[in-house]
Amino acid sequence: MSTYNPAFSDNSSNYTTQNLLIILGVAFGSIVVLIAIAILCERLYWRRWYQNTAVIPEVPHSHNVSYGLSPSAIANLTTFGYKRYDNEGTGGGGWLQCAVCLSMVQEGEEVRQLPICKHMFHQECIDMWFYSHWTCPLCRTKVEGPEEVKVRDNQNTTTPPAPPV
Description:
Distance between the termini: 124 Å
Keywords: Membrane, Metal-binding, Transferase, Transmembrane, Transmembrane helix, Ubl conjugation pathway, Zinc, Zinc-finger
Low-confidence stretches: 87-92
Structural class: mainly alpha
Number of helices: 4
Subcellular location: Membrane
Pathway: Protein modification; protein ubiquitination
Transmembrane segments: 20-41
Membrane topology: Single-pass membrane protein
Oligomer: single chain
């Protein structure tokens, strides 16, 4: 009794053709994967190279440029402990949400009220904001300390406007 085994058959032309196709498929797939890896590595290399050698335009005297408020101007802004008034109290009631961190202000937390627009924020949040900005985060009104407002008002009242020409 004999069993048919294609690996040991006399006619093995189909068997070697199948093996050849499998070997060619694996080789072709391996080449495609290696090319994809090479392209990916090259792109990552060039991206890092461009990031490390990017030309940053030099701003004249950029070490003296300040984009936010000075620490003294920030320290001069009004700071107090937040007190929520209920509807029967003197205030209109409601809750205060800090527009910088987007969390609710709890009673007793330190808040700063901006002098012109009267918006209030957590002290830490708005101080961080003012290191890089000089406007209110809500209404974009220019923020000035109380002394700057007084100086500006005094300058306007003591100096009359120039006559029209």
